[in-house]
Design goal:
The complex is a heterodimer of chains A (446) and B (370).
Chain A lengths: L17 H6 L4 H9 L2 H11 L11 H6 L10 E6 L8 H8 L1 H15 L3 E6 L4 H16 L15 E6 L9 H8 L23 E5 H5 L1 H7 L1 H6 L1 E2 L2 E2 L1 E8 L5 E6 L4 H6 L13 E5 L7 E3 L16 H4 L3 H4 L7 E6 L4 H15 L5 H18 L5 H14 L7 H25 L1 H4 L14
Chain B lengths: L8 E5 L2 E5 L5 H11 L28 E6 L12 E2 L10 E3 L4 H16 L15 H9 L15 E4 L3 E4 L8 H9 L5 E4 L6 E4 L12 H5 L5 E3 L12 E6 L8 E7 L2 E7 L13 H6 L7 E5 L22 H13 L10 H23 L1
Parallel strand pairs in B: 1-5
Antiparallel strand pairs in B: 1-2, 3-4, 3-5, 6-7, 7-10, 8-9, 11-12, 11-14, 12-13
Classes of the chains: A alpha/beta (446), B alpha+beta (370).
Keywords (chain B): 4Fe-4S, Iron, Iron-sulfur, Metal-binding, NAD, Translocase
Protein name (chain B): 2Fe-2S iron-sulfur cluster binding domain-containing protein
Cofactor (chain B): [2Fe-2S] cluster; [4Fe-4S] cluster
């Protein structure tokens, strides 16, 4: 049985209430941090743990905290990014609704470490019931003296505010989230300045994912070194994976980073293998925005090594033969899934969610969607494939925020690995545009 | 006491060294090079959304992306992505590649393509034609063909106030007018609604803009999305003659450009600098209500760039001299014409004759067909 850090107590009945959570050793980390440690020591533990941002980019959290500017007389803010909207990712939702106090405990410790007296949890608007759960949990914590003025008699004040978002994917981008939190239109900002220097209300701000922050109680209780001992290489600790698609047991699983993809996909403890009578066709390993992988590159890398669930192993081979761990949205496709239709579907999502601020993304996402729609519905031509590759190249890296990249990668990778399927759609328009029609030819090899 | 000057920063832009003050952007440094030597003006990155008089504008259109080959003298690593030159500040020892880098030029070409895929090609009936930044940008950096086969987005025209018409179909969402409405007018009445390629500039539910400086959104618009209703379809810009003029205005600086067609003032705009930017915004009274020469003190013709189509229309006849040899040739040939037909001068008679000729021709063709 693998070690669990976040979901250890998740199945205990009543864990969403303060009392049950406290009985399971909850809030001891807050007591330890506030009573016995200085903020610098907490930051040091986070750095030692090597925990990487779980929102998708994988940037070390301790390092991010270290960048926070600390000018005198200006407030600092911690914002928790709970605007989880990546297609295929639903881990934060699961964590917040099941064990809300874990996030709140993490928020108290992290705010203490950063010297923030006002912290925000920005939850996507669709999760109204989760917002109510969090607000109830905050009330409970406040009543027990873990939040509010003079926490545990230490003189440290913290106010925790839950803010519902408007339901836009783009508000999961940290600067767009800050704009939205300020009450403006959720347009990403140009960087620099980074939020660590000028974030919320032009003050230094740290934005962290729910899962990253939820790791803090364990790190404080057991030490950063103990956390760093779990996992493999620079991918330390555990990760929640949202498994979905054509598998036996979809759901949220906590894995130790470094588990092999093969084991995660096929063992009964996790996904339980591809659904019966079907075989694996493709995999999106980290949410819709990461490159898709064909069957032959999923369990082995291009060099023939075992592919592991870690930041490094999944991105082995770059974008030519690799992908990214991203936010951990593990979407499995069997041979009944049409890659063209799926790519069109992803592309439609990014077209719909582009904020419309910078031209490559605003115009390019719509263009790609229209071309893919045409191919899927049997009106494509051969030069459309190269056109798509060219558009995706022109969007990638030229936009204000990573949404442009996120829109370009799935399209580029689908064509890279499944070009023959696109060609089949174009050469057999009548057959391909039938509902449920799927290319049954040989799977492309790289 | 000696004035303390900030230490200048030296950067290299396309192989040209320039010294600028700290806090300058790459774009401003490039403009400084061009202002010192007009021959280098092709080096300046194009700006579709950046507008110097409007702080915080820029960074959206991505037309000015450049490559930073060396971040600074301290940290000589190149920047991983192309950076928007309009908002990226210079560092000591920075090396910037603009026209010397093929990747930058390719990207710029694709930005033109992106901006044009939803832009109607209605330049022949657009009032902005001739002074349109997108036209210039596309002409200089774009390709002649489009690869876009899909339907373009379209919107209905909206009248925002008595003076301004909004035609969103042409808009490239540069946000300049939003910043103008935000920064120089009292109330924020004007913004962006919806998102992605469906986003539109609008006043909230097509409400009229009612303030004294609303006309400035017309000047800042790089395309023909916001047009002057008192000038719409009156004339082509290259048939008009710009003159600088001023008047005492209690609301604004009163410094404007009058656009003449013959003796008639058909349009008034704020004065624009070399980069197409308005430095002194003007009020609606000056812009829309003082359309008589007697209201103004004239200062002389506005300087227009030679490359501009506006200067193609020579204002004064003296500038255009017909070559002598053509006149002489015409003169010598004129005498040799020996036409025995009746010499007709009356217009009515000419028209009659042509109608008759037409009838004859029609009759002939009918006969042939039958």
């Amino acid at each position: 049985m693998a070690r669990k850090i976040l979901t250890e107590h998740i199945n205990i009945p009543g864990i969403e209430s303060f009392d049950v959570y406290r009985q399971q050793g909850g809030y001891t980390a807050v007591e330890k941090a506030i009573k016995t440690m200085t903020p610098e020591e907490v930051v040091e533990e986070a750095k030692k743990s090597g925990v990487r941002g779980r929102g998708g980019a994988g940037f070390p959290m301790g390092m991010k905290w270290g960048f926070l500017a600390k000018p005198e007389g200006i407030p600092r803010y911690l914002v928790c990014n709970a605007d989880e909207s990546e297609p295929g990712t639903f881990k934060d939702h699961h964590l917040m609704k099941s064990i809300p106090h874990l996030l709140i405990e993490g928020m108290i410790i992290s705010s203490f470490a950063l010297g923030a007296n006002k912290s925000f949890i920005y939850v996507r608007g669709e999760l109204m019931y989760v917002i109510r759960i969090l607000e109830k949990a905050i009330e409970e914590a406040k009543a027990k003296g873990f939040l509010g003025k003079n926490i545990l008699g230490s003189g440290y004040d913290l106010e925790l505010i839950v803010q519902p978002g408007g339901g836009a994917y783009i508000c999961g981008e940290e600067t767009a989230l800050l704009e939205s939190l300020e009450g403006k239109r959720g347009n990403p900002r140009n960087k620099p300045p980074f939020p660590a220097v000028k974030g919320l209300y032009q003050s230094p701000t740290v934005v962290n994912n729910v899962e990253s922050i939820s790791n803090m109680p364990w790190i404080i209780n057991n030490g950063g070194d103990a956390y760093a001992a779990i996992g493999i290489g620079r991918s330390t600790g555990t990760k929640l994976i949202s498994a979905s698609g054509h598998i036996q047991k979809p759901g949220v699983y906590e894995i130790e980073l470094g588990l092999s993809v093969d084991e995660f996909l096929n063992s009964d403890e996790y996904c339980g293998g591809v659904r019966k009578g079907h075989h694996l066709k493709a995999l999106v390993a980290g949410g819709s925005s990461v490159p898709i992988l064909p069957a032959n590159l999923i369990t082995k890398t291009a060099n023939g090594e075992d592919r592991l669930m870690s930041y490094e192993s999944l991105s082995d081979g770059g974008f030519a033969t690799g992908t990214m761990l991203g936010s951990g949205g593990f979407i499995v496709f069997d041979e009944t899934a049409c890659i063209v239709r799926n790519t069109w579907n992803f592309s439609r999502f990014y077209h719909h969610e582009s904020c419309g601020q910078c031209s490559p993304c605003r115009e390019g996402t719509g263009w790609m969607e229209k071309v893919l729609h045409r191919i899927e519905h049997g009106h494509g031509s051969m030069h459309d494939i190269d056109l798509l590759v060219d558009i995706s190249k022109k969007i990638e890296g030229n936009t204000i925020c990573p949404l442009g990249d996120a829109a370009a990668w799935p399209v580029a990778s689908a064509i890279r690995h499944f070009r023959d399927e696109f060609m089949w759609h174009i050469t057999n328009p009548l057959e391909a545009s039938q509902p449920g029609a799927v290319y049954q030819g040989e799977m492309a090899l790289v | 006491m000696e004035e303390i000057k900030p230490q200048l920063i030296k950067i290299t832009f396309d192989g040209i060294e320039v010294e600028v003050e700290p806090g300058t952007t790459i774009m401003q440094a490039a403009r400084k090079i061009a202002e010192a030597d007009a021959a280098q003006s092709a080096l300046v990155p194009p700006a579709m959304c950046y507008y110097k008089p409007l702080p915080t504008s820029g960074g959206k259109c991505r037309a000015c992306l450049v490559r930073v080959a060396q971040g600074s003298a301290k940290d000589p690593r190149p920047m991983p992505k192309l950076v928007p030159s309009c908002i990226t500040q210079v560092q000591e020892g920075m090396v910037v590649e603009n026209t010397t880098n093929q990747a930058v030029l390719d990207t710029r070409k694709s930005i033109v393509e992106f901006l044009l895929i939803n832009h109607p090609l209605d330049c022949p009936i657009c009032d902005q034609a001739g002074e349109c930044h997108l036209q210039d940008f596309a002409f200089e950096h774009g390709s002649a063909k489009t690869r876009y086969e899909e339907e373009r987005r379209t919107f209905d025209k909206i009248d925002i106030g008595p003076y301004v018409q909004l035609h969103m179909t042409r808009c490239i969402l540069c946000y300049r007018c939003v910043y103008t409405a935000d920064q120089i007018t009292d109330k924020r009445v004007h913004g962006v609604m919806n998102r992605g390629d469906a986003s539109e500039i609008s006043t909230y539910i097509e409400k009229a803009i009612d303030n004294d400086f609303s006309g400035n959104v017309i000047d800042v618009c790089p395309v023909g999305a916001l047009t002057d209703k008192t000038y719409r379809f009156k004339n082509r810009v290259w048939f008009t003659k710009p003159e600088d003029a001023h008047r005492d205005c209690d609301k604004c600086c009163g410094k404007v450009t009058l656009w003449y067609r013959g003796d008639e003032v058909i349009r008034i705009t704020a004065r624009k600098n070399t980069w197409g930017e308005v430095n002194d915004f003007i009020c609606n009274t000056c812009r829309f209500e003082k359309k008589k020469t007697s209201d103004w003190v004239l200062e002389g013709p506005t300087k227009v760039k030679r490359s501009s189509v506006i200067s193609a229309n020579k204002y004064s006849k003296d500038l255009v001299k017909k070559p002598d040899f053509a006149l002489k040739l015409a003169e010598s040939h004129y005498k040799k014409i020996d036409d025995s037909r009746a010499y007709v001068t009356d217009e009515e008679a000419i028209r009659h004759q042509s109608i008759e000729n037409n009838d004859k021709a029609n009759h002939r063709s009918l006969l042939e067909n039958n």
